What we know:
single chain; 208 residues; alpha/beta; Nucleotidyltransferase, domain 5; 2 domains; 7 strands; extended; disordered C terminus
Amino acid sequence: xxxxxxxxxxxxxxxxxxxxxxxxxxxxxxxxxxxxxxxxxxxxxxxxxxxxxxxxxxxxxxxxxxxxxxxxxxxxxxxxxxxxxxxxxxxxxxxxxxxxxxxxxxxxxxxxxxxxxxxxxxxxxxxxxxxxxxxxxxxxxxxxxxxxxxxxxxxxxxxxxxxxxxxxxxxxxxxxxxxxxxxxxxxxxxxxxxxxxxxxxxxxxxxx
Length: 208
């Protein structure tokens, strides 16, 4: 920039400082390289713009895996803690959702591309339950999933400054976070967050 404007680097730095600018800290935008990016983007955004009547959120966590569906409109959370994250546990969660919601509702699930979600047994179950409609975010584009905002809220309000002696305490802290405000364009969002209790008195949270 200094070369382009014909001034010294120090001058550019002084101007930046005067206006509180720190361009070196600006984060880059990650564009997905998924070959089906446009197709998936259109599918997910289209669901946000034209949502079904009921909407939901789903959270899946870690060594102890917490599957949870969050209904934004009603402010209700449906969840269960399971020891692992395999297709068996995912099917268990889908069956729970199937029981919780009226049979006359179609359930639109927005989720990532984790292999569990496309396991043959999961596909077979979905074929027998056509009201479940899956919408996959493009690879490297988790920002498309609105549930990421809720995960960020959990991290900021409960995890970042928390001290947890056990997974049980961690789950209790996370479940204490309010579902969030009601939304005009709800959908059933699925995503994953790993909660890994460390060997000391802290807990790390990192995306799958």
